[in-house]
Prior knowledge:
Chain A is of the alpha/beta class.
Amino acid sequence: xxxxxxxxxxxxxxxxxxxxxxxxxxxxxxxxxxxxxxxxxxxxxxxxxxxxxxxxxxxxxxxxxxxxxxxxxxxxxxxxxxxxxxxxxxxxxxxxxxxxxxxxxxxxxxxxxxxxxxxxxxxxxxxxxxxxxxxxxxxxxxxxxxxxxxxxxxxxxxxxxxxxxxxxxxxxxxxxxxxxxxxxxxxxxxxxxxxxxxxx
Amino acid sequence: xxxxxxxxxxxxxxxxxxxxxxxxxxxxxxxxxxxxxxxxxxxxxxxxxxxxxxxxxxxxxxxxxxxxxxxxxxxxxxxxxxxxxxxxxxxxxxxxxxxxxxxxxxxxxxxxxxxxxxxxxxxxxxxxxxxxxxxxxxxxxxxxxxxxxxxxxxxxxxxxxxxxxxxxxxxxxxxxxxxxxxxxxxxxxxxxxxxxxxxxxxxxxxxxxxxxxxxxxxxxxxxxxxxxxxxxxxxxxxxxxxxxxxxxxxxxxxxxxxxxxxxxxxxxxxxxxxxxxxxxxxxxxxxxxxxxxxxxxxxxxxxxxxxxxxxxxxxxxxxxxxxxxxxxxxxxxxxxxxxxxxxxxxxxxxxxxxxxxxxxxxxxxxxxxxxxxxxxxxxxxxxxxxxxxxxxxxxxxxxxxxxxxxxxxxxxxxxxxxxxxxxxxxxxxxxxxxxxxxxxxxxxxxxxxxxxxxxxxxxxxxxxxxxxxxxxxxxxxxxxxxxxxxxxxxxxxxxxxxxxxxxxxxxxxxxxxxxxxxxxxxxxxxxxxxxxxxxxxxxxxxxxxxxxxxxxxxxxxxxxxxxxxxxxxxxxxxxxxxxxxxxxxxxxxxxxxxxxxxxxxxxxxxxxxxxxxxxxxxxxxxxxxxxxxxxxxxxxxxxxxxxxxxxxxxxxxxx
Lengths: 200, 655
């Protein structure tokens, strides 16, 4: 999937929210959904289990209207976080233009964060993306939890941000940092408009 | 009390978007054929969304198509006030009559009908009267008819019988388009993304939007540097946001940060707009925007699609310019086609800039399909005009005009008594002009001109009639004095006259009396006629008479006898060429009947020996038309017009 289609004059950005299970990816999408005027958003598709775990993926289409003559659409996806859904994650990652890695700030989830990040790298590599160039931003979610449970952004940066990506502390339930993260990844993605850097 | 239409409220200045497209289309349809479609047209929508604009645009457009249409715009308040005033003055009937004379009634803000029973009854009566007479009503309101409190059920039904249509608040793109057009109108250019920022602020009504823009225009005018989007937000009283998020904000700060508020999506949208604006190459953005605009108007944009798909086109701007040029051409062609053949309007061929040739062909066909206006008669040629001292000036004028049509003398008016040859001069000029390449010369009797107009009015094809004459390269009207009292013809001729003169096309007329003595013709037309060259044609002098006689009798077997005959005939006292031709014809007819060669003796016998009952058309002081030795009367229509009484008319019909 190409970012710009000149024939139909469309710019379509596919952004995938990646991260370990229960880190708050779907919460990010829900918050965005709630903030977008009805006319601009499509139906949010969410396939969740009874305990609200993402089973397959969430999908939120956003219609940003015509910008510089191009109909601009954003498609926001989440992947299921649990380790055993890797096939689904690969599928969702296909054709993505940018990734938001949602990390769980809790100290006890550090290993899950790392494992998921490695999985992301692996899957991107498999799809032929250059992980050093690919638009990825980090979001350290659940920064609202008590201090003794979570790591600071510096500590999280130390462990996860070895590529010096942009990172944002967040509280996805209340929306802190949600749009900042989305704006940042969008900016990275759109900078690559001319280059046409899409996975797959 | 009628409010004049605001000249700025036209279709051309109305920005069409998804939210008002249907209303705009319906309004256009109504303006093109008032009373025929969607009657009444009821437009409703929130304040400041363009209802009044659309309504007045209908009035402007309808009046442009048919200048004689009586258009009346008034708000419900006006309607009520005049009603009360009329009732107070005891002139209720006059008030009612007034609306029966209006062809297109534009009534604004009808939501104020709430609880006004007597006004509702009055409007119901007006509506019924207008609908039954096929006259158009366009109403606007800020809510749907069914939501107007205590509105008479019968009125609701009447409105529902036409078209009830709403205008929604403009979407983001339309808001941008409106802002751009307004900025352009004010001659102000804003930095990229400023207008997008304003459009993203969530103003619902167009008035608010324009108000916001006005503030920016005013500020930018006093500012040295152009405003940036952040400043724009500040000016318009919206909190600004840091342009870029800082990386790795300390977590304490994050915890202290308040829960986000305001329009997060709006500012996200602004940033995306800016990013796209920076990333999409300028020419691509221009091409894509042009495509969107033209596509919106229904044009095919395949050429631009191909252009966009190229990696590095050589000169995209010139392709775009050419494309726009082609569309302009299509528009002109379509306008012409619509005038020539109303059915052609909206034909898809006028929507494809890649088929300008095909569109041109359509118009050519339409042109051929319409009858060309009547041209000059082939029987009156310049070569047949005898030159004499009296005709020298007129001949000279014809030659000058033929050498430089539209530039030498415009118009030329031949003035003279009946029978001196005005018509011959006029048609001779017409024939000479018609010989030029691509010439379309209209040369006809003024009475025929009037008749054609009347028929066109009858069949509602006045535009077609106008188009027919507007494309002529020369217009020659015989007997212009017959315009007296024909007000509409005078008016049409006046406009046609101006149009033709301005575009350097030739006009010529004939008139039986000096222009100053003409009665019943508007001064504005008379002064225009006098502004050209007025040539007086006197009674034929001997030189001319001799030439005329010679041409008619030809070279006889005996030159001396022929000369004697010619000298005798030319010496007869006649005051017009036509009378002279009548005399010669009588002699020739007699000679033919007696099977002898025409001679002076015969002529003397015929003309001086008391001719009892010669047929009128051959002595013809009244029967105009040129009589030639062989073919008799050539100009049938002339004869018909000049037959003096019903007996002669019957003879003509029997013929």
